[in-house]
Q: What sequence folds into this?
């Protein structure tokens, strides 16, 4: 929900001047590193374009003065001189046009290259982040802001730097012309532009704080937009008739965002009008002065025209330059967010062990606790147990008892807050990440529905490194997806998801079969971790798959709410509120008449009968 309308976001920090200069240089460095010829081309044309306005003003003066001379003398030579200057003016204007077009072309190339380069940096960074970092809401906000502005801001900043340089050179040339008349004329140009500059810089800071501070609302808005258009949310949304509520939330959010924009832009516009009036008054005072001096006979008509033109263009150029500086400052603020994101320390994966110090020991958990960042109580506490190779371990417990968290710790995706987890005698953090990951084949909860081909959905189990159709089909068979793949018109090549024109949609159970096939592709992993692997399968398929998994001869860690699935496990660990409350075989736990037995009895007549049989 949107916050109070007048939330000022004043507490959001903006970077210091020193940091800002550093960011600017890094952005230029990025351009240089990506395409130095493009950078050189833009810089060269910028300098040429910067000098042309002063040249044009000078040529205009020469035309007027030579025309007046020709009128006075009536000589053919003077007439030819005037025509010569007209031809020069045509050349200057044509060059201006050509250089401007060339610059626009090169800058469009730069925008595309830089947008890609920055997006690449962002994705390289997010791909190196670990799971807790990606689950951190503050980091997610930084990523969103960086992604939103990746294509525009770094290019914007570089463009503003070039523009500022161009305007600065033009100004120096204008100043040189004005100086010949009077140094005061240079001062008039400066006095007219500076107030606007300070106002723009001030508003750039406000805008940045607004955009940064409003990221939660922007995220909610984009979520509501997805909710109103996505096919996956459509069945529930349509059925629950939630549309008016969702739309009204969206409208509420929009008017809050719009109200803030309006207030800020209205203040910006009124300041711009007021300062524009000040600039005009200064300009016209300068013009009156030049006119009076000309009437007094101290300058020629041509000089007067040139001076007035230069005075006006000088003021415009200064205000464009200062607007570029203000805009560049605004770009820089967003880039500071980008660089803050890029500067986030990456998770230290310092482990190098390719195998454990006691091969064959399996997993050992010693007094493990884990708390999610910001959580007020640990998700797991005092967890100790062993899993010897080849053991089949069942994990059971109510929703939120910590089962998924526990298997993610075993996979090394989270690090225990305290305690130790070892695999073959070596702590997980000391393992080489690739070697550790290669030990486990996993069905995740929730599993992904990749909007790729069927083959790629399976190949993701080995990071898309396996492309051999025979291996993919074998995994499909072992994940009970063989008949499904055979039935699809293009087999492994079938594109999934209706989002694509030629894409096919699958049922929940069919998607789950592909997720199972993905896990089963990892034939070299000696540990199979299955987090609710059969929740979407029909009973026949469920029994068939679990039987298959049991025959795999690998360590099996199985999470299931259907306790009958765990009957064959060598050991069952029962979790409650993040703690182990019971362990034992199915029969032992049934006989103990504790938590497991209670859960088991609650699962209906069928399970109770088979439990009684086991007693
Ligand atoms: N990514 C997360 N960030 C913060 N807290 C989380 C996260 N995932 C889970 N939790 C919290 O940790 C606790 C344990 O969650 P976990 O998913 O491990 O339970 P579970 O036993 O697998 O539940 P279920 O049977 O519903 O799948 C819950 O209180 C949950 O709210």
A:
């Amino acid at each position: 929900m949107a916050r109070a309308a007048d939330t000022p976001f004043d507490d959001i920090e903006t970077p210091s001047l020193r940091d800002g200069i550093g960011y600017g240089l890094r952005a230029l460095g990025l351009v240089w590193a990506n395409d130095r010829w493009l950078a050189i081309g833009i810089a060269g044309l910028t300098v040429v374009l910067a000098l042309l306005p002063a040249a044009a003003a000078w040529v205009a003066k020469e035309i007027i003065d030579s025309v007046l001379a020709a009128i006075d003398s009536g000589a053919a030579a003077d007439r030819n001189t005037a025509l010569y200057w007209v031809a020069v003016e045509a050349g200057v204007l044509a060059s201006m046009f050509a250089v401007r077009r060339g610059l626009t072309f090169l800058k469009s190339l730069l925008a595309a290259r830089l947008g890609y380069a920055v997006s690449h940096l962002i994705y390289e960074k997010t791909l190196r982040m670990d799971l807790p970092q990606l689950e951190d809401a503050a980091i997610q906000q930084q990523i969103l802001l960086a992604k939103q502005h990746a294509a525009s801001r770094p290019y914007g900043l570089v463009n503003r730097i070039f523009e500022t340089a161009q305007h600065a050179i033009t100004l120096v040339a204008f100043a040189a012309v004005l100086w010949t008349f009077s140094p005061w004329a240079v001062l008039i140009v400066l006095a007219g532009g500076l107030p606007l500059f300070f106002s723009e810089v001030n508003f750039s800071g406000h805008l940045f704080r607004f955009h940064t501070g409003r990221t939660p609302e922007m995220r909610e808005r984009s979520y509501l937009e997805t909710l109103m258009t996505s096919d996956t949310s459509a069945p529930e949304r349509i059925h629950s008739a939630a549309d008016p509520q969702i739309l009204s939330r969206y409208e509420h959010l929009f008017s809050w965002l719009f109200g803030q924009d309006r207030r800020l832009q209205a203040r910006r516009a009124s300041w711009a009008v007021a300062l524009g009036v000040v600039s005009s008054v200064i300009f016209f005072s300068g013009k009156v002065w030049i006119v009076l001096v000309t009437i007094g006979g101290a300058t020629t008509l041509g000089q007067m025209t040139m001076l007035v033109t230069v005075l006006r263009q000088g003021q415009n150029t200064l205000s464009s330059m200062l607007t570029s500086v203000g805009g560049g400052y605004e770009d820089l603020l967003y880039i500071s967010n980008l660089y803050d994101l890029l500067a986030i320390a990456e998770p230290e994966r310092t482990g190098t062990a390719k195998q454990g110090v006691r091969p064959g020991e399996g997993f050992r958990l010693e007094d493990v606790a884990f708390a999610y960042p910001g959580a007020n109580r640990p998700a797991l506490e005092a967890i100790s147990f062993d899993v010897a190779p080849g053991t089949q371990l069942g994990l059971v417990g109510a929703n939120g008892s910590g089962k998924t968290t526990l298997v993610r710790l075993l996979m090394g995706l989270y690090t225990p807050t305290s305690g130790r987890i070892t695999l073959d005698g070596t702590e997980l953090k000391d393992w080489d990440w690739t070697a550790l990951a290669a030990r486990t084949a996993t069905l995740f909860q929730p599993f992904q529905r990749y909007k790729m081909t069927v083959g790629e959905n399976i190949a993701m189990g080995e990071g898309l490194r396996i492309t051999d159709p025979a291996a993919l089909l074998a995994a499909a068979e072992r994940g009970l997806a063989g008949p499904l793949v055979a039935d699809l018109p293009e087999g492994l090549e079938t594109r999934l998801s209706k989002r694509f024109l030629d894409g096919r949609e699958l049922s929940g159970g069919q998607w789950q079969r592909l997720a199972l096939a993905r896990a089963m592709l990892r034939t070299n992993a000696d540990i199979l971790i299955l987090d609710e692997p059969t929740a979407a399968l029909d009973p026949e398929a469920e029994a068939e798959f679990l039987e298959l998994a049991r025959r795999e001869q690998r360590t099996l860690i199985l999470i299931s709410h259907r306790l009958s699935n765990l009957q064959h496990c060598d050991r069952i660990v029962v979790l409650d509120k993040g703690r182990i409350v019971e362990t034992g075989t199915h029969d032992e736990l049934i006989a103990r008449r504790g938590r497991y037995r209670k859960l088991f009895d609650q699962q209906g007549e069928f399970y109770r009968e088979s439990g009684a049989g086991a007693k």
